[in-house]
Amino acid sequence: MYILLANFSFLEIWYVTSTVPNMLANLLSETSTISFYGCFLQFYFFFSMGTTETFFLSAMAFDRYLAICRPLHYSTVMTVQRCIRIGAGCWVCGFSCFLLPVYLISQLPFCGPNTIDHFLCDPGPLMKLSCVPATATEVICAVFNSVLIFSTFLFITSSYTLVIRAVLRVPSAEGRHKAFSTCGSHLAVVSLFYGSIMVMYVSPTAGNPAGIQKIVTLFYSVMTPLFNPLIYSLRNKEMKMALRKLFRIMRFGQKQPFKN
Fold this sequence. Notes:
With 260 residues, the chain is mainly α. It has helices at 2-17, 20-28, 36-69, 71-77, 80-97, 99-106, 123-128, 135-168, 173-201, 210-233, 237-255.
């Protein structure tokens, strides 16, 4: 599990790095420009890392299924070597999947004004810049996104359905609480990430207003990676104790009278 978490944390760092520095540079500069090749490189890396994240979330759900439903087999199935192979497979598959959408969109004829109504190179605004209707490409991308999102989401929900069934059979309340606590943080991360990308990419992009696209993309590209370390850290006892201590100090400080 910790090998997968380490890979997931490394992925989140680069996931944010692919968009935030350029976004901040555009906010601070008067001329917000990006080259054609730079735009499609950002498009490829951002969505490839997002796809890789869906595979890692699926792998982590399978890990929790084995740990709770097959505890006696866990150490023999999820060996260090197998975890490394699973992690490598997630990276390779994630960076291979989005080659087709990037190629299809890059082959569209673009004519001016080449102004992207977004803070990153997203497929929806890019296809709107095409000189000709891109209905076929839009439908292909929507189907591709739907298959990718729903297949991994159904795998995760199936894994956790089996986990919940196994946990409910645990006789002691303490055992059920411990089992649910190990899955709670992962379920929270899955809900944040999949909830936002389903709103954004399951339906054809032409149906989403530009303002909604920007808000949802900002949420899953910046806010979700920001929340993830906090969500996983709240499982740590030392982290919980430090937060309680901080809240006590803040409450105590507010009650102290001001001195002249």
